[in-house]
Fold these 3 entries.
Entry 1:
Amino acid sequence: MTSAFDDKTLDRRRFLLTLLGGGTVAALGGIAAVRLLGGGNGGRAMAAATPAAVNSSQILLLECFSDDDGHHLGPCDVRKLVLSDAQWHQRLSDAAFNVMRRAGTEMAFSGPHEKPNSKGLYRCAGCDTALFNAATQFDSGTGWPSFWQPIAKKNVIENRDTAYGMVRTAVSCAGCDSHLGHVFDDGPPPTGLRYCMNSVAMRFVAFRVS
């Protein structure tokens, strides 16, 4: 009877454990740790979208969704996109860079996503993380695309924003820390929230299957 693990597998696990440093494995949680150590992805591939060097502490467990019909594919391991300003400038337009990397705001009614008109989902313009389903979009009349909830809470990050003498809640992409907009408590049911986003920070993907 042969061993369940050959020498190459053991060497790989020793290398990854050394790289992760024990505490990082615990911080990532059991599922992510198993996936990193070769315990199976459950059919989901790990995203590696960045040309920049990424260390093991930047492995994220986000929620993934299909472009075909928005079907929830479950949790997936994603490497956080970490780029220099020069690399971000290459990836983004000037307007998107100002919003996403400098926490700017586009002019109201200037973006293409202000009013919902088709089924689909919105992905981060920087790293492609799924952010919002168009089914949760509504016409807020503000001039910015608005949603009553994100497609998955773990795919966005919310932080207190006290800039310009106001107290607001800023929303950024969990996959690359890019600024997306703000969330307010004047939205419609069922959440009563209004995620007020910048069009240039997102790209719309129309469902291929109705």
Entry 2:
Amino acid sequence: MYERIQETASWLRERMTTSPKTAIILGTGLGQLASEITDSYSFPYSEIPNFPVSTVEGHAGKLIFGKLGGKDIMAMEGRFHFYEGYSMKEVTFPERVMYELGIETLFVSNASGGMNPEFHVGDLMIIDDHINFFPEHPLQGKNFPTGPRFPDMHEAYDKGLRDLADGIAKEVGIEVKHGVYVGVQGPTFETPAEYRMYRILGGDAVGMSTVPEVIVARHCGIKVFGISIITDLGGFDVPVQVSHEEVQIAANNAQPKMTEIMREMIRRS
């Protein structure tokens, strides 16, 4: 696997005309941020050696390079999920490649279900911490030379970046929430009882991504900022049905606020 990572990084490096230190992962329905990237060039996942291919609607499936907030960045428009049948090594392959390309800061975004009764559809939740419910761990197996066998996770989501986001949100008048993200396998949405369980265990939002990516990024020493768009609600007294299409619509409506915060964070970081 490590040889494949090196091969992919080398292929990209030969074709890159920029030197990004920041990467962004765009979740379900959040691809519009890609249109904010200037001086861009991109590679479809299908053309990149060893790269998995996203199979989920709302995930375009290309790696974009360019500028955002006046800084060189790279962005994944579409991510990979465990429920698609990929192993955790494949799900987190891009983060390994990012490290080889010199990425130092990773912004992760996702659409998630809110189970905090104070949340509403369209809210932005800055991720303070996570709970890992995936049945397979991305660091399972032989340890990669990019980090320790037992990496510390007491600050998976960088406090300095969270504070920066809070300050920017206050300046521009965007309300943000904070909370704990629960990462689950999917692809089913949660039952009301599952929502209530995750809430009792300390979760504020739940989704089917992000956690493996963050674990591997931290193993590589990459700083992480995470943000969830609350696209549906669950676990309350009245059951609420949800569809993937509704999630995409809610994410699409809220993403201009997320884009504004991220763009300014990148400009100042």
Entry 3:
Amino acid sequence: MIYFDNAATTQPYPDVLETYQEAAAKIYGNPSSLHYLGHQAKRVLEASRRQIADLLNVKAEEIFFTSGGTESDNWALKGLAFEKEQYGKHIIISAVEHPAVKESAKWLGEHGFTISYAPVNSKGFVDLKALADLIRPDTIMVSVMAVNNEMGAVQPIQEISGLLADKPTVTFHVDAVQAVGKIPVGDYLTDRVDLASFSSHKFHGVRGLGILYKKLGKRLTPLLNGGGQESDLRSTTENLPAIAATAKALRLVADRQAAAVSGLIQMRDLLYEALSDYDDVLIFSGRDEQSVPNIVTFGIKGVRGEVLVHAFEKHDIFISTTSACSSKTGKPAGTLLAMGIPVKSAQTAVRISLDDDNNMSELEQFLTVFRQIYADTAKVR
């Protein structure tokens, strides 16, 4: 089996699973309980929080645990909107956000808020001038993802931070789900960023655990009420085994990042060069420093993306259409359409998302199968 769908989810590291199992078996007390087992669990919880904070260069009290990236995005947008609605009801998101942000914004738009969409250029990068022009006196939030999940474009978070430097009343949220382990923390978690969302299973952690970074002093309306966990902002018993495993995963990814990125660049370049030799191949993603090294998005003219996905699956090679969260809808990639790519071309798009566990031998096998599929689809081109 060859797995090239790491932007959808990664395989947990063995050490991460070991940490999860050990915590589940041995640290089973409720962190809110007053007895010894509760205190033991609380110590592990807070030690994990401190480790994650240190790796992200933030304070421990700025880290909150959620059920995943989708909840973190929902909480960031809705919690901020309800907290600040008395000051304004205008929110700006980029035109290429993940559905967790887009759908949250759409929902807010149906409940009295005004949503504006910052356009992107032909390469998928947010148009800074257009974004600046959208800001109004009643703007309360700007939300822009760090790395686009469909194209791998690294958005200009530092430049947007500069744009918002003299606008302290505008909260800046960054969906950083695809950024961990691919670009430096400082590139997406600047001093101007107020909120940031993360998802454990995107960096070799486990499913069902997310992180929301909330800058000290910033306020959010809780989405969950109850026993007062997470500083009374997210009430529910903490998923301690997953939290401990996530802290381990983040440390391992940070330790391996430099070597991993170097290897990913080599693999990505090989793919680009090989695919570029085919006349009817469309390559949509970039291969420079403004793109993460693990995502290659392409298509074959006249061949729908889902056809390619299933063709490779027959050879035990797993790729995806551009976004796992919307791949079953049959709709073309929203990012491609926002970039001005014609619908017919966008419908061909598939995404290869690599990991440092992949290797050149797998790429060579992929390219051998691709050559066969390319020949087999000639009659529809």
